[in-house]
Specification:
The structure holds 2 protein chains of 2 kinds. By secondary structure, chain A is α+β, with helices and mostly antiparallel strands. Chain A has one domain. Helix content of chain A is about 30%, strand content about 10%. In chain A, the strands form 2 sheets. A 5-stranded antiparallel sheet of chain A has the order 2-1-3-7-6. In chain A, strands 4-5 form a two-stranded antiparallel sheet. In chain A, strand 1 and strand 2 form a beta hairpin. Chain B is of the alpha/beta class. Chain B has a single domain, classed as 3-Layer(aba) Sandwich (Rossmann fold), CATH 3.40.50. Chain B is built from 7 helices and 7 strands. In chain B, strand 6, helix 6 and strand 7 form a beta-alpha-beta unit. The radius of gyration of chain B is 17 Å and the shape is globular. The two termini of chain B are about 35 Å apart. Chains A and B meet through strand 5, helix 8 and strand 8 of A and helix 1, strand 2, strand 4, helix 4 and helix 5 of B. Strand 5 of chain A pairs antiparallel with strand 4 of chain B, so a sheet runs across the interface.
């Protein structure tokens, strides 16, 4: 269940195209990404029913077809994904924020009911550690389920990092292994435009060409936005 | 955006096909940033309509939205060819605001320009898929044409069976190497020109009429 609508909780399998026109159930266009191996969020389905208003309508319900995703040359192959064993298990939540962001900001926003699970290190096996780690992320994002990502938020997401002037991606690799792993996994699927840092973008031309919509990833864990080009238009002179 | 839109698009495509002979072809001017696409679009528009299409600049990504000039009538060999010109943002795989800082731009402006340029590339790719009947591919003949972007775009254009004219621009500059471009895309005809100086525009117009008329 790698993808979940943050408005109604509906889940989508890896590589699903069903959500590309917005959530078929509630029309939401904000999803969270859960890598394979993450625990199922049992309560997510009925947790919130607040639908978003600004999302595009559901349209095509294409069955999942993960294999037909184009694989651009410049994207990392799935084999390049770091193994779970390679990932340190941060105690303060997987969404280790960038410098300048309060380290406990994400967990503090989480619903209290999930807090004990988040705090539990669960050091039994590698897989369990990973699961505990991931549930931290999900809890953090659960607090934002009622919202729909707006262009303003896109902008803000960039500028928050901008304010502290994050140096270079290699520095991120040391502090945010989880985020990078998630980014890579998203890239493998369908990311069209990647925000490397504020004002720095990488574009997947084949994805942009192949898709009616285009997808912008945010810098936060597993959150991304699907943009529809209905506002586009050639300007007549 | 939904089923109705898709249906409308389908109908639109059918009707487009039925009346294609009567309507002017929509010709997209594509290429990497700073190849001279807008300079060419303005040259064509000024020569045949007296108007300009958009502002030109030596700073990359000056064009960040596709701009169209409709009903450009080009007369060649006693007949008139009418086309719509679409000047598109330069296509690239990376946009970095730092590139703009070298052009005396404030960081905030550079970041904003970078974001708009990124959206412009997305838009250009969108229009390439759906809204052009032919392509004028503009390359700066002073730079190496063997790039991922050029190879990918030419490949897409060929896969669409779109008529494509490759222009080796900036022949007025000392480092211009038209042959290098011709060698890079031997399957296409390469026309040298200087859109800025207006050099060899006669041949360009003849080829436009031939390819897109």
């Amino acid at each position: 269940m790698p993808h979940q609508c943050t408005s109604c909780g509906r889940t989508f399998p890896d590589g699903s195209k069903e959500m590309l026109s917005g959530c078929p159930d509630c029309g939401g266009n904000k999803f969270q990404f859960k890598p394979a191996g993450a625990t199922e969020d049992a309560g997510s389905g009925g947790e919130t029913g607040r639908a978003s208003g600004s999302a595009p309508e559901a349209s095509d319900r294409t069955p999942p077809a993960p294999d037909d995703q184009p694989a651009p040359d410049d994207q990392p192959a799935p084999d390049d994904q770091p193994a779970p064993d390679d990932q340190p298990v941060p105690d303060d939540g997987a969404a280790d924020p960038t410098p300048g962001t309060p380290a406990d900001a994400t967990p503090a926003d989480s619903p209290p009911s999930d807090a004990p699970a988040s705090a539990d290190p669960s050091p039994e096996t590698d897989g369990t550690e990973q699961i505990a780690d991931r549930s931290d992320e999900d809890t953090a994002q659960a607090s934002a389920r009622s919202e729909v990502v707006s262009p303003d938020e896109l902008d803000r997401a960039s500028r928050e990092v901008d304010a502290v002037d994050t140096p270079e991606p290699p520095a991120d690799d040391e502090t945010q292994p989880g985020i990078d792993a998630l980014r890579d996994e998203l890239n493998d699927q369908f990311e069209s435009i990647r925000i490397v840092s504020p004002g720095q973008y990488e574009l997947n031309l084949m994805e942009l060409y192949d898709r009616q919509e285009y997808i912008i990833s945010l810098q936060e864990d597993g959150r991304y936005v699907i943009e529809m080009p209905d506002a586009w238009g050639i300007q007549d002179e | 955006m939904g089923l109705l839109t898709n249906l409308r698009d389908s109908i639109s495509r059918v009707t487009d096909g039925l009346f294609a002979a009567d309507e002017p072809k929509r010709i997209g001017i594509y290429g990497p940033p700073n190849a001279g696409k807008t300079t060419l679009a303005n040259r064509i528009a000024r020569d045949w309509t007296g108007d300009a299409v958009g502002p030109e600049s030596h700073i990359p990504h000056e064009t960040r939205r596709a701009r169209r000039k409709e009903g450009v009538e080009i007369e060649r060999n006693g007949r008139t060819v009418t086309i719509d010109i679409v000047d598109t943002p330069g296509v690239t795989t990376k946009v970095d605001y730092k590139e703009f800082l070298d052009h005396d731009m404030e960081k905030d402006d550079a970041v904003r320009r970078s974001r708009e340029a990124t959206e412009g590339v997305a838009e250009a790719m969108h229009w390439l898929r759906e809204d052009v009947d032919g392509v004028i591919y503009v390359l700066d003949s002073t730079t190496d044409p063997f790039t991922q972007v050029n190879t990918m775009l030419i490949g897409i254009i060929e896969s669409q069976d779109l008529p494509a004219l490759i222009l080796a621009n900036k022949t007025d500059l000392p480092g211009s190497d038209v042959q290098q471009i011709a060698n890079a895309f031997p399957q296409h005809e390469t026309i040298p020109l200087s859109a800025l100086e207006g050099d060899n525009m006669d041949e360009v117009y003849t080829k436009i009429a031939e390819y897109f008329g």
